[in-house]
Amino acid sequence: MLAACSSSPATDAGTDAATITDNGGTDSGSADAGTIDAGTIDAGTIDVGTIDAGTIDAGTIDAGTIDAGTIDVGPGDTGTIDAGTIDIGPGDTGTIDIGPVDSGPTDSGPGDSGAPDVACPALRTQCGDRCVDTQTAATDCGACGRTCCAGNVCSAGVCSPGCSAPLSACALGGSTCLGSVCRNLSNDPTNCGACGRACTTGQVCNTGTCQAMTTLEFMPLAPCNLPSDYADSGTVNFGGALGNVYSPRCVRVRAGTRITFSGDFASHPLRPSTRGTSGNLIPATNTGDRAGIIFGSPGFFPFYCQFHGDGSGGGMAGVVQVMP
What we know:
By secondary structure, the chain is mostly beta strands. 0% of the residues lie in helices and 23% in strands.
């Protein structure tokens, strides 16, 4: 049997909770109008290194007194930089000077421009920045700055050419160097019998005596020591296929006759010797290939090659005999 249904709505008999009201103040601040950060996202690798687990520095804090000295406000040093030569002498081992401080005015004199102090060993003399033996040094013979002339050596502090018989040492006149030159006093017309004694024109020096040449007496002069060494010729050839010789080297002509030297003077410079008869007319010649000379007076007139001979008749040398 079915129950009867009521048509009246059901009534809610429960009690409602009280409604909560928001009593806070209204946000009246300005709206955030800043630009949105659109930068690139940092995609770098994350640091996954080991954490530093070292010991913490627990040392004592420096509690020293602060330097409260007066600040140096003096003017800067504007003096000239010392550019003098560095002293390379031995160190000063003397006693330290503990005397009073020199309070005099600053020395404004010129700097020391002398040579550095050089400690020279025994038997050596300081010449500038060098230690030299003045007994043997050709540039400082006997004392600093005394230079020996060419052909001289320094021996016992004296410049000497080291002449051997029959040559003698004669001083060089008017030279800026020191020393002598070797001369044969028996036949040198500029040093006849003694250094500096010259024969007059037309005279010959024979056995150390100046003689008038009325008749031509034979004069032995190296390399022509015998009358038979001379050949009659008007030409002296040299160099080329002949080599370092004159041909003929002992040549004989009559006074007033031309004699011609033929060869390369650049390779064999011609020089007159001071030996023989005074007034040697042979010219010093350095260029060309021919040179002619006319001798007006009799006599013996030596010559030589500057490169391959010498004035005493050695090497490439010869003599012109001019007959009356």
